[in-house]
Specification:
Layout: H1 18-21, H2 29-41, H3 43-54, E1 63-68, E2 71-76, E3 79-80, H4 82-94, E4 98-103, E5 109-113, H5 114-130, E6 138-142, H6 147-159, E7 162-165, H7 172-182, E8 186-190, E9 192-195, E10 198-201, H8 203-209, E11 218-222, E12 236-238, H9 239-244, E13 255-256, E14 260-266, E15 274-279, H10 280-294, E16 302-305, H11 312-324, E17 328-332, H12 343-351, E18 355-358, H13 360-368, H14 372-375, E19 384-388, H15 394-404, E20 411-414, E21 448-451, E22 464-468, E23 478-479, H16 483-491, E24 499-507, E25 513-518, E26 522-525, E27 528-531, H17 532-540, E28 545-555, E29 559-568, H18 576-589, E30 598-601, H19 615-622, H20 638-651
Parallel strand pairs: 4-17, 6-7, 6-8, 7-14, 8-11, 11-12, 16-17, 16-18, 18-19, 19-20, 29-30
Antiparallel strand pairs: 1-2, 3-13, 4-5, 9-10, 14-15, 15-23, 21-22, 22-24, 24-25, 26-27, 28-29
Helix pairs in contact: 2-3, 4-5, 4-6, 4-11, 5-6, 7-8, 10-11, 13-15
Bound molecules: adenosine-5'-monophosphate-propyl ester (PRX).
Length: 652
């Protein structure tokens, strides 16, 4: 793989702080390596042992793994229920422990013990059953980050219903396409949510998504803001009305280990999002085990992950992993800068947060606001920090380390994906030295490698494709309704029966992995995955657009910004008004997170003789840097000059 150039900064190395190390679950590199090697050489014994000690089974499994390679099944013959693992089994030993401490953006605080959460989940599950939902049905969830979202997720799990959580920033069109693909029967939503002091409507967006034919039979509406909404008789129900009628106990549905737990749509390198399918036992095991060791869990912890449950991080590290481990989870509904930039630091002080897990983009925006905000608050409860979603630049890492962790908290830079279900590469905080910007070592049972396009391992410090050599229980099983796409995108890109991640990486002399970003057509904007093709399809669906090519452009806070090169149909005229229209159109098609930062109108797109758009050149143009590499395959060299000229015009 010669096209990945890597920088090899002589960065600093931070050994685990001594005070942290002496109380950690894993306290040395030797202990980590011994367990990692054991798991690599005896995967079935390792995963089987962990599944026995971490999960509660209704019926034990017969075999740890069946099937071959990346198409393995795990714990065949075993039966369990995910909500029992997250709730019921804690009732006897710690029923009165807080499960959730949740803050609404306006400032209200909800505290739910494990017993409270269990009761609410049972009531909602009974309500869902009364609506006729049955094991295997799909329920879409489009909710704010309030406890009812967790209740909805676990109520689905209690009945063996698959949830499909849709991030509350997605548009009506995005909800419609996801529900059509999943054939969702119910959608659970709220009247609205609070964001930067304003009420954002949710029910209204859901109503738009249901115009025309839809598989959705009912809409269940949680009253969050009191905003007025229209209720469609026979179809729509209020959450409080349904809950008022329900008993506080509900027998869980015991499901086979491989029963799908949920669908979560994510962007790939084509125009349509893919419904990633995760199963019950393997996923729970992966999230619980990684959460316990990577966050070095203690029974008294107050753990806060800022991710929204609309993304995989919220599924795995707000809900399933922490609750399976009986942790007290802190949740927050709103924006980091409401009412001011001290909000996160205030939450940490108020609730005594011990672990704080967030995204580099959030760290960069918080850093930009200056040190006065965190200095106003007592952050001494913190003992560990974590990042996820994109590579963290060393400057942001150092700020996090010094100003928030006060140099005493290890930082776990966790690399993983929607598809992997759980963290794959991250430093075990009491054992592995950290390096700013480096995800370091693979977790137990995970065997990554860096290879070229032929599947041959590349040398130390050489850039290549990041693959995983052995199957692991929390990996996706398929793409909903498209097993061929699963095979072609993950299992057949690189020869050998390996899982292809879509990321580039290099491994240094210490065996530490550095993630180099995506090698496919996926953008990472503020830690969110967006497909360039998805945005291109949205653009060309506008009547004025002939062709569009979308690339990422470096952005200081958001990691990447969306830059679109657009050619118009012959009769159309470029202009500022049309730019606004196109931005609006993309937002309506996908959601505000996909709003293009730049739209450049051009006469033609640079293409190869075979008609492929040369995005590599557009990336250079977008970043205003000289074109690197070979342009000999370009069909018409003059195109570049006209694009460059158009871009200059644009900037002035
Ligand atoms: O490119 C990698 C990047 O995010 C991608 C996965 O995105 P998604 O499925 O939305 O999941 C995000 C949260 C798990 C990866 O292919 N990524 C994720 N974590 C890191 C990262 N890149 C560098 N360092 C990370 N720690």
């Amino acid at each position: 793989m010669t096209s990945i150039t890597t920088m090899q900064p002589k960065g600093q190395v931070f050994p685990p702080p001594t005070a942290f190390q002496s109380q950690a679950l894993i306290q040395s590199v030797a202990a980590y390596e011994a367990l990692w090697n054991y798991a690599k050489d005896n995967p079935e014994a390792f995963w089987g042992g962990q599944a026995t000690s971490l999960l509660t089974w209704d019926m034990p499994w017969g075999v740890v793994r069946t099937g071959t390679g990346m198409q393995s099944q795990w714990f065949t013959g075993g039966y369990l229920n995910a909500s029992v693992n997250c709730l019921d089994r804690h009732l006897e030993t710690q029923g009165d422990k807080l499960a959730l401490i949740a803050e609404g953006e306006p400032g209200e605080v909800w505290r739910l013990t494990y017993r409270d959460l269990h009761r609410e989940v049972c009531k909602l599950a009974n309500g869902l059953r009364s609506l006729g939902l049955q094991q295997g049905d799909v329920v879409a969830i489009y909710m704010p980050m309030v406890p009812e979202l967790v209740i909805a997720v676990l109520a689905c799990a209690r009945l063996g219903l698959m949830h499909s959580v849709i991030f509350a920033g997605f548009s009506a069109e995005a909800i419609r396409s996801r529900n059509a693909d999943a054939q969702a029967k119910l959608i659970i939503t709220a009247d609205g949510l609070y964001r930067r002091g304003a009420v954002i409507p949710l029910k209204e967006t859901v109503d738009h998504s249901l115009e025309g034919a839809s598989s959705v039979e009912h809409v269940l509406v949680y009253q969050r803001t009191g905003a007025s909404v229209s209720m469609h008789p026979g179809r729509d129900l209020w959450w409080h009305d349904l809950m008022a009628m329900q008993s506080e106990t509900c027998a869980p549905v015991s499901v086979p280990a491989e029963h799908p737990l949920f669908l979560l749509y994510t962007s790939g390198s084509t125009g349509t999002p893919k419904g990633i399918v995760h199963t019950t036992a393997g996923y729970l095991l992966g999230t619980a085990l990684s959460h316990r060791y990577i966050f070095d869990l203690k029974p008294t912890d107050r753990y806060w992950c800022t991710a929204d449950a609309g993304w995989i991080t919220g599924h795995s590290y707000v809900i399933y992993g922490p609750l399976c481990n009986g942790t007290t989870v802190v949740m927050y509904e709103g924006a980091p800068n409401f009412p001011d930039w001290a909000r996160f630091w205030k939450i940490i002080e108020t609730h005594g947060v011990t672990q704080f897990y967030t995204a580099p983009t959030a760290i960069r925006s918080l850093m930009q606001q200056g040190d006065a905000w965190p200095e106003k608050h007592d952050l001494s409860s913190l003992r560990l920090l974590g990042t996820v979603g994109e590579p963290i630049n060393p400057k942001a890492w150092m700020w996090f380390h010094e100003k928030i962790g006060k140099t005493r908290c290890p930082i776990v830079d966790t690399w993983w994906q929607t598809e992997t279900g759980a963290i794959m590469i991250a430093p075990l905080p009491g054992a592995i030295s950290t390096k700013p910007g480096c995800a370091t070592r693979p977790f137990f049972g995970i065997v990554p490698d860096v290879v070229d396009h032929h599947g041959v391992p590349v040398g130390e410090n050489q850039g290549g494709l990041l693959v995983v050599r052995q199957p692991w229980p929390s990996m996706l099983r398929t793409i909903h309704g498209d097993h061929d796409r699963f095979l072609s995108q993950y299992c057949q890109v690189v020869p050998g029966d390996v899982y292809f991640t879509g990321d580039g990486a290099r491994r240094d002399a210490d065996g530490d992995y550095w993630i180099l970003g995506r090698v496919d057509d996926v953008l990472n904007v503020a830690g969110h995955r967006l497909s360039t093709m998805e945005i291109e399809s949205a653009l060309v669906s506008h009547p004025t657009v002939a062709e569009a090519a979308v690339v990422g452009k470096p952005d200081e806070v958001r990691g990447e910004a969306i830059c679109c090169f657009v050619t118009l149909k012959a009769t159309e005229h470029a202009g500022g008004e049309l730019k606004k229209q196109l931005q609006f159109h993309v937002v309506a098609q996908i959601g505000a997170l996909a709003r293009p930062q730049e739209i450049r109108f051009v006469q033609a797109l640079p293409k190869t003789r075979s008609g492929k758009i040369m995005r590599r050149l557009l990336r250079d143009l977008a970043a205003d840097r000289p074109i690197a590499g070979d342009v000999s395959t370009l069909e018409d060299l003059a195109t570049l000059d006209t694009i460059r000229a158009a871009s200059t015009e644009d900037d002035t």
